[in-house]
Amino acid sequence: MMTTPAEPYALPAEASVEVSAEEHQFNELIAADSRIEPRDWMPEAYRKTLVRQISQHANSEIIGMQPEANWITRAPSLKRKAILMAKVQDEAGHGLYLYSAAQTLGTSRDEMTDALIAGKARYSSIFNYPSPTWADMGAIGWLVDGAAICNQVPLCRASYGPYGRAMVRICKEESFHQRQGFEILLELMNGTPAQREMAQDAVNRWYWPALQMFGPPDNDSPNSAQSMAWNIKRFSNDELRQRFVGMCVPQAEVLGVTLPDPDLRYNEETKQYDMGEIDWTEFHEVLAGRGPANARRLQRRREAHEEGAWVREAAVAYARKQAVAATAVA
Ligand SMILES: [Fe+2]
Ligand SMILES: [Fe+2]
């Protein structure tokens, strides 16, 4: 009598954790530090992480235009106006590259825009602070774009191809942004006592929020390890923050401004700067929508979206007309 063959579907226990061929290929690409492209299979969690990160990044570029656009009409000279306009336009371009990168992951631009104007999507907490003086243009360029550079240079090597490639172009423009901010402050610091005071006041207001741009401390950043394992993130939040402070200290000396941290000092043993306590309560408050300018920023974004409706309609009508013309020729 024949024995019943083993149930064909009952795989041995180890086999059930075996990865699929696609997943194996994904893991191989990551291990080889190669790029994942839109056509490649990827784990859902990887896709979700990227959509969240890239869309938040895009939103930050777009909302980040506001504190500086606030000063375009009041720039102190034609030269400053031209530079500031170019800078704000660059930020619009950064938003567009990044929304396009996020779209390759299957989320539409409309979905991302709707989430932003509905107040459901995040953007960097830094852009919820006001820019009351001209010196803020200097402090934003020097500190905010400076922090952005520290964050973004390693992202040029992010494992997801469209994101990494967008970052390469963005970083080239960010270094110009940082320099123009530095130069605004330098000019003010070489000016009258009132100008020097205005520059110092702006640095006092932007320094701590710039340190918060790197995100919570490593021991309070639960998703970082996974992002590092996927080669999206290359350095931890605290490492990047440390690198930024190391960059700011000598530049502050050249400018003649004081960084508003009485505990900041070089530690000979660690070869790094020890710094004072960051106010994380403030960070979480701003992130939760309760910062000084959150409501104003979102309101302005909503208005701009509504005011731009006719441009979108015209573009759709034009595309339709072109399509009809193309079929007529064919
Ligand atoms: Fe930017
Ligand atoms: Fe920038």
UniProtKB/TrEMBL annotation:
This protein's encoding gene: paaA
EC nos: 1.14.13.149
Annotated keywords: Oxidoreductase
Organism in which the protein naturally occurs: Cryobacterium tagatosivorans
Assigned GO CC terms: cytosol
Protein name: 1,2-phenylacetyl-CoA epoxidase subunit A
GO molecular function term, any single one: phenylacetyl-CoA 1,2-epoxidase activity
GO terms, biological process: phenylacetate catabolic process
